[in-house]
Amino acid sequence: MQTDIEKPIPAHVAEQMGATPYAGGVFFRVWAPHAESVFVTGSFNDWMPYATSLLPLEGGQWAVNVDEAKPGDEYKFVLKNGDLELYRNDPYAREVTNSVGNSVVLDPSFDWGDEDQFTMPSHNELVIYEMHIGTFRRKKGDVPGTFLTAIKGLDFLKWLGVNAVEVMPPFEFAGDISWGYNPAYPFAIETAYGGPKAFKTFVKEAHKRGIAVILDVVYNHFGPSDLDLWQFDGWSENGKGGIYFYNDWRSQTPWGDTRPDYGRPEVRRYLLDNALMWLSEYRCDGLRMDMVPYIRNVHANGNPGDNIMEGYTVVREINDAIRHHFPHKITIAEDMHTLSDITEDTTMGGFGYSSQWDAQFVHPMQEVLKIADDEHRDMHKVEQAFLHRYNGDAFRRVVYTESHDEVANGKARIVEDIAPGQNGNDFFAEKRSLLGIAMTLTAPGIPMLFQGQAILEDGWFDDNDAIDWSKLEQNREFAQSVRDLLRLRRNVKGNTAGLCGQFAEALHLDNVGKVVAFHRCSDNPANSVVVIANFRNQAYDSYEVNFPIPGDWELVFDSGYEGYSDYNEGDTPANHLTATETPQGNIGQVGLTAYGVLVYAKS
């Protein structure tokens, strides 16, 4: 049945790990340095455990070509180590029947159609929507959503103006319900979500709509359950995880003793191969890397004695490889320690990420929005959050007021925290929620919304609780206001390019009246945009603001517009104002509603 590996194997096949189908059958290759012998058993040999043996290669690898094997065949490796006989799924399995099932030889063919025409937006034009596949468009009953059901929500995202989705980890995990941060098979798409073909279809359909796909990957730990990587070839030390994991104190993570051993070249290759696969085979447009502090430090505590220098190495290797092979794709770190090194170039000693989630925006903005008493709202915190940046680059941070971390594990969404039990139907909850979204979409940085935020979803994030899409009809006016802000952020009408620019400055800060104003522009001052926000439950009929340039300014957004909310009524400010040059500055008079936001563009 089998052909040994001396048969000529195409170089691009022979270099691959896992199961690689091609015209000459399937080439199997696995790393198991402590195994005495290795076999592959599957549907192609009637599951006979010892019929097909792999030959040893250098570096503890084993390989064989099986002529009769083909895409769709199920298989497992059988490893002998002393008295141990271990049936293991392929660490590189692109598909599994389920997390306790068999590996599947994946058919690599897929009709991408004209999707090759997709070009990812520039980083300064991105607007990200964080999405959990199991709950974004969930099926009826207890069945989680799939990539195919998620496609049904893409037209709404296109209407909203989103041009990138960040998909929470969809890798095969134990059971069918999970946040996704417990990957058992990092190369395989979760079966309950539809598997690899469904994910490719999702990427293709997103690209058709002009939406990039950023994938959330987990390299700080694996599992910990349903984990065939654990003591993979029978070897381990201290009762720990064996060849894929640290076997000493460095194994410790909050999720189990399953930190990958970044010191082993084979493990670093495993992670690098994984990262590049999503960008090449699945045509994803970027990666968001989960909890980087636990890659670079055992306890994520900043103590140099707990640093994992090999973690520094693997992160830099991955980011350098992505920069080399896919220079226009994005890598985003979840670090949350406000370190400029995270987004500094590797040539300068940094980690090389394109951008990072910014704790200096989300935490102060959440605090300011949720405080019940207006008098305690600190406009200095708003100013600092709005203007913060890393490495002198506005777009090396992702800004947001809600994410899966901010609205789960006992932490509610903003509308629920402000008005508990009101289902989002509350003046204060609605107004201050929009205020936070407006700050997110006008601040320098890459803005991100969490699923449901644009329709005033009030439930905290739960992997068993689907987004309530009836809220789209209930809160259509609110969604329209978010849409209009998104269109401004992306300069759809060509008059708000300043929101895509690097420049930002504070024009006004009134910590008594709770009003702030900011100036945004690109290289051309003619693209200037002014954002004025009122964080107080008090309207101002005529409020003086110092504009950066004298002359005419066009009002392009007013959150008090009656078409945005049933709480809005009466006249709105004039569509234009003239900033008059005076000794005190270029003074313009604006009308502000309670918790209102105005955006002006230079005429």
User: Could you list the spans in which at least 5 consecutive residues all have pLDDT below 50?
Assistant: none
State the shape: elongated
Q: Would you tell me which CATH topology of the domain at 497-602 applies?
A: Immunoglobulin-like
CATH superfamily of the domain at 497-602: Golgi alpha-mannosidase II
Count of alpha/pi helices: 14
Textual characterization of the structure:
Among the domains are: 2-104, Immunoglobulin-like; 497-602, Golgi alpha-mannosidase II (Immunoglobulin-like). Strand 21 and strand 22 (515-521) form a beta hairpin. Helix content is 22%, strand content 24%. The N and C termini lie far apart (76 Å). It is elongated. With 603 residues, the protein is an alpha/beta fold. Strands 11-12-15-16-17-18-19-20 form an 8-stranded parallel barrel, surrounded by 4 helices. An 8-stranded antiparallel sheet has the order 21-22-23-28-25-26-27-24. Strands 1, 2, 3, 5 and 6 form a 5-stranded antiparallel sheet that branches. Helix 6 packs parallel to helix 8. The protein has 14 helices and 28 strands.
Keywords:
alpha/beta, 603 residues, 14 helices, Immunoglobulin-like, elongated, 8-stranded antiparallel β-sheet
Helices and strands, with pairings:
Layout: E1 2-3, H1 11-14, E2 18-22, E3 25-31, E4 37-42, E5 55-56, E6 61-66, E7 74-81, E8 84-88, E9 95-96, E10 103-104, E11 128-131, H2 133-136, H3 147-151, H4 154-160, E12 164-167, E13 171-173, E14 183-189, H5 195-208, E15 212-217, H6 265-280, E16 286-289, H7 293-296, H8 309-325, E17 330-333, E18 355-357, H9 359-370, H10 379-387, E19 397-399, H11 414-418, H12 427-442, E20 446-450, H13 470-474, H14 476-489, E21 503-510, E22 515-521, E23 529-534, E24 540-547, E25 551-558, E26 576-582, E27 585-592, E28 597-602
